[in-house]
Amino acid sequence: xxxxxxxxxxxxxxxxxxxxxxxxxxxxxxxxxxxxxxxxxxxxxxxxxxxxxxxxxxxxxxxxxxxxxxxxxxxxxxxxxxxxxxxxxxxxxxxxxxxxxxxxxxxxxxxxxxxxxxxxxxxxxxxxxxxxxxxxxxxxxxxxxxxxxxxxxxxxxxxxxxxxxxxxxxxxxxxxxxxxxxxxxxxxxxxxxxxxxxxxxxxxxxxxxxxxxxxxxxxxxxxx
Length: 224
Hints:
The chain is mainly α. The protein is built from 11 helices and no strands.
């Protein structure tokens, strides 16, 4: 006698490495990478944890895979446009991607290898600078200035003990109330800047530092 099937049941989606990694990215965004376990990932995918090992070797393999997926979201610079505009857009894209996935920047720094997506970004950035007329030596220094700003600023920002501008404003307001402004007038002035309403034309703190680097590189390039 044929077995009756539920006509409303959804067909099972085949398990693939890409599907496992994409769900792992979503879970890492929700709960953090440290709280991501094989068991939890399996539950989210509707399979036993042991089934995952047909597609990923272990949690280190998941780490490397999801870092590469995140890095593939970054817009790489193009040689078809002005080098400064292309590098600026790529750096902003990288910063925004790392803010969307706050765990990714530190994991990228902790990995011993260089992922394919990371290699693609590096090659594109280095090539853009070389095609713009920077020497190999200047390109070396420019790359590290840009990379350290992207990663350093992002790691600093994602480590903040708050998530929104409103929380930052509350923290600054509490700090201001307790600060003896007569002893620390410039610190008090600095706190006021944090509390001031930004205008649409104000660059972000990340963009301000980025533009300083790019302007300095443009000057060096002009003298070379």
